């Protein structure tokens, strides 16, 4: 009997847990930097504190690889951080590591913990509402067994004695020879159903409560991650909550921004709102200088993490950390050998009927069918099968993240399930763009060569606007530079 994938990944995480005690370990005065441990001398005369920020991974552990010019990937990030370790002092990542709470994202979350914690030594893992939606008890079990990597400053347990911080305390102090950083994290309420035994405080109240609780600690820089509400929520918090030096808007922008929002304080200090972008495509480096009792942001650097293709399919791509790549590859092997593809196929009821397959459209739309057969859409699933032969050890045609953009209706109950069960829904067929068309087909089969009532004909239209449907797969990340008007010419049909 095969062990569940989560158990395998969990065991691997146990073996790497001791890595949390490195410099970037939480609350350790005398750890010293990992650079110093490895014999790289930190310039003592350089007073600038160099901070690497990122956030909103959104389940994108690595780019899909379907297009060139893609960026991101934990294995590429690991390579960059290890290769440039003398150029920064500390790396921190904001939460919302997953896209949504489902079995696939939970498995990816475990690998994310291994990479960020055991491999890259991130000292604290702030959580967003999406992460919390996976299940509080599972997160608490991990926290109790392996120490305090998680943080949610605005989430409290209701007890008879009053409110208690979810993970024991509502802050973490990360200590570095150059700075002692008080880290806060505002998860927010967006994207999850808050259990009855928990209370989520308003952001400003949570910050005030946390700063009051942290008075007994020694720190000189306060950094707060804000995971919901976008740039406006982060900016509002920076204005209303005194004492914050850096506010990181985790979901505030797709690309990292090198221009901060500066919020002047009454005491002459300045709070800065930063935007590190999403999906790990960039790292945002902040150069900070302590002057008197406050910090000045000298410069922001946007560091792109390019996702280069391997010179030989199935081999290690250039600029990739082998250890992290192995973990990601192991995850893909386990996912595609499990039954997750079928489990994830029935999550949503389709709107507008059920899927009938491209051939059902052909009798009435012969010209459109002919144009489709010549397009890359018709061969979309074949690219997964071809890549499976190149990869050898894992099968993209059985990975939910790959299949969803190379088939019709995957994730909906009548949509694609697997190559064996629903071969008529392989490839990006008509209904991938126009929606489930059973009602449309039934209506026009009945009224073929007859004049149909206008009102009834309107009800039988296909449920999706094709142009809008394009952007579900041709996203900024998966299709950099996608231009609808240009691409439409290649698949144009009536």
Structure explained in plain terms:
By secondary structure, the chain is of the alpha/beta class. It has two domains: 5-311 and 318-322, Purple Acid Phosphatase, chain A, domain 2, CATH 3.60.21; 349-491, Flavocytochrome C3, Chain A (Flavocytochrome C3, Chain A, domain 2, Orthogonal Bundle). It is 33% helix and 16% strand. The strands form four sheets. A six-stranded mixed beta sheet has the order 7-8-10-11-13-12, with helices on one face. Strands 2-1-14-15 form a four-stranded mixed beta sheet, with no helix packed on it. A three-stranded antiparallel beta sheet has the order 6-5-9, with no helix packed on it. A hairpin with a 2-residue loop joins strand 14 (282-291) and strand 15 (294-304). The longest helix has 17 residues, at 103-119.
């Amino acid at each position: 009997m095969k062990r569940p994938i989560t158990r395998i990944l969990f065991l691997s995480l146990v073996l790497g847990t001791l890595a949390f005690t490195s410099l970037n370990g939480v609350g350790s005065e005398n750890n010293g930097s990992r650079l110093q441990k490895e014999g790289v001398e930190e310039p003592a005369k350089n007073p600038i504190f160099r901070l690497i920020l990122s956030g909103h991974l959104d389940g994108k552990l690595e780019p899909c690889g379907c297009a060139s010019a893609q960026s991101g990937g934990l294995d590429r990030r690991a390579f960059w951080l290890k290769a440039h370790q003398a150029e920064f002092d500390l790396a921190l990542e904001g939460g919302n590591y997953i896209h949504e709470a489902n079995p696939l994202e939970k498995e990816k979350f475990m690998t994310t913990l291994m990479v960020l914690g055991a491999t890259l030594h991130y000292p604290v893992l702030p959580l967003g509402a999406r992460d919390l939606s996976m299940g509080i008890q599972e997160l608490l079990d991990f926290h109790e067994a392996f120490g305090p990597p998680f943080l949610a400053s605005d989430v409290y347990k209701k007890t008879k004695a009053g409110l208690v911080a979810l993970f024991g305390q509502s802050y973490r102090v990360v200590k570095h020879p150059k700075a002692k950083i008080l880290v806060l994290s505002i998860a927010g309420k967006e994207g999850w159903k808050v259990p009855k035994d928990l209370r989520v405080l308003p952001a400003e109240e949570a910050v005030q409560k946390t700063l009051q609780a942290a008075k007994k600690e020694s720190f000189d820089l306060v950094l707060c991650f804000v995971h919901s509400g976008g740039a406006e929520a982060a900016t509002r918090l920076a204005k209303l909550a005194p004492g914050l030096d850096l506010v990181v808007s985790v979901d505030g922008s797709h690309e990292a921004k090198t221009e901060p929002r500066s919020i002047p304080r009454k005491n002459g200090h300045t709070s800065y709102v930063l935007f590190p972008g999403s999906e790990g495509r960039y790292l945002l480096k902040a150069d900070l200088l302590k002057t008197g009792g406050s910090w000045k942001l000298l410069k922001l650097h946007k560091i792109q993490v390019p996702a280069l293709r391997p010179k030989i399919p199935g081999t290690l791509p250039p600029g990739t950390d082998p250890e992290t790549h192995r973990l990601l590859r192991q995850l893909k092997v386990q996912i595609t050998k499990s039954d997750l593809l079928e489990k994830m196929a029935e999550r949503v009821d389709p709107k507008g009927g059920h899927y009938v397959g491209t051939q059902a459209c052909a009798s009435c739309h012969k010209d459109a069918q002919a144009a489709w057969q010549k397009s890359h859409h018709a061969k979309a699933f074949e690219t997964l099968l071809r890549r499976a032969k190149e990869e050898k050890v894992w099968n993209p045609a059985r990975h939910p993240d790959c299949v969803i953009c190379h088939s019709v209706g995957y994730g909906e109950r009548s949509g694609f399930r697997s190559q064996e069960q629903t071969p008529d829904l392989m490839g990006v067929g008509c209904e991938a763009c126009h929606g489930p068309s059973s009602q449309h087909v039934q209506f026009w089969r009945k009224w073929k060569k007859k004049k149909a009532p206008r009102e009834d004909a309107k009800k039988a239209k296909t449920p999706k606007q094709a142009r809008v449907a394009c952007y579900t797969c041709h996203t900024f990340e998966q299709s950099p530079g996608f231009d609808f008007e240009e691409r439409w010419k290649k698949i144009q049909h009536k």
